[in-house]
Amino acid sequence: MNGKKGSVEIDIPPPNKAKQPEDGNKSGFQGFPCKAWIWSAWEFCKDDVDRVIFSFKVGLAVLLVSLLILLRGAYEIFGTNIIWSIITVAIMFEYTVGETFNRGFNRALGSLLAAILAIAVGELAQLTGRIAEPIIIGLSIFLIGAITSFVKLWPPLAPYEHGFRIIIFTYCFIIVSGYRMGNPIRTSMDRLYSIAIGGFVAAFVNVLVFPMWAGEQLHEELVNSFNSLADSLEECVKKYLEDEELNQAEFSEKVMDEFPDEPAYRKCRTTLNSSAKLESLADASKWEPPHGRFRNFFYPWSEYVKVGAVLRYCAYEVMALHGVLHSEIQAPYNLRIAFQSEIQDAANQAAELVRSLGKDIWNMKRSLKTSLLNRVHSSTERLQRVIDMHSYLLTPHYDLPDNSSNPVPKLSHVLPTTPYDFLDQDDDVCSTNHEKSSNHLTQNLTESYYEMMRKQSRRLNSWPSSEVDPFEKGGGFRIGILPQMRAVKSTAALSLTTFTSLLIEFVVRLDHLVEAVDELSKMAKFKHEDL
Length: 531
Fold this sequence. Notes:
It is found in: Membrane. It contains 21 helices and four strands. The chain has helices spanning 34-47, 50-70, 72-78, 83-92, 97-127, 132-151, 161-181, 184-208, 214-242, 253-257, 263-272, 275-285, 301-325, 333-338, 340-363, 370-389, 419-430, 434-444, 447-460, 470-474, 482-523; strands at residues 28-29, 32-33, 365-366, 527-528. The longest helix has 42 residues, at 482-523.
């Protein structure tokens, strides 16, 4: 207060002016990014043009039934009950022809049963007099609602769940309207022909205007799953063999779910989640008439689901291979490339067989896969023999030979770039003289290699990785660390054994896939073609 001693000065800030809202024209609506939404919608439409076609087809069908109300002549004939045609089109029209027919059947059957029950109960209630009539109608509504709601939960009747809903809705409408208007039969007939008109228009538009057949979608979806599985297998094996240093990212949900540099992995994961989609398309396909290349009545659509199940059975092994590829403990690079040709050949032969099966399904041809299957089995047996012959490479007591005239295939010419190679060389030296080994290590390790060894030993000395540095704690490299590193080296070598075992198991499961495809080709009467 005027700067006097002991006074306190209090500053009161002026009131802030109300913040003016930003111009909504920049984003269309406040907080709603119009430009981003439009771009997202465009990408969604571009991803599948059939979605846009389906939308226009629904609009066309609704317009056609609406003309019965908009045109005076048609309105005088059909009256206000024609509104149920519009409701029928909106409820019945589905993405594929099979789903539309399925919905139409459920709606027609449900409406017919509900109309019969409503007429019977309405006539019976009228005979009981004005006092008992509303009681009987109310009790019937309760019983119909409870019984149909219970029955639709029964698994065998789950596909007709929509029909049971129609029964409740139609019965309540007819019985109540008949009670007030006094003529349930007339009300039922008006509703039935309105539903018939709407169902006919929906089926007519869906079949004749750019039809989308569930059978063709099921056929294409299964073939794409074959190609995705083959691509994912080749991609996984290629990365496992070609990456000299498999850089492992930090463990997180993002690492588990997303691999940006592995597009085939995502497709393979989609194949594992395709069970519900294949079953839905197969159920819809059963309602479709013979069309296109599927001109047989009672086409075996259920066999597509069985083939898809066996395909997922094989895809589980590919996902397991990806798990080994992205695991923390990896086999040394020189150990991986020692079996490179055998692993690569087995994977390529298996992928070729999977693509060939998918191609046969796409072309609807039946060909003998004896030669391809024999080549796959031969390459796998060769891989097994090589693993058995060089199993000593996968043991922790193996030492790299000093004699370059008799080298291990693809191992002797590879420079030591990992601590495992260094351990192999160190074990050989330690077998002759412990003191000589220590002097040899001191003379040959460069500073850059020494830094690399510090990081690698810290990672290998603990699981999961820890911040403890044995070099810093011990003041330098000590021989006491070698047993621990040898143990981890043995575990790392088993990583290669796991990878090859999963690959061999994948080939074994291909036999079941060939049998499933052959059974499909027989039942679907594919054209026979000998290789």
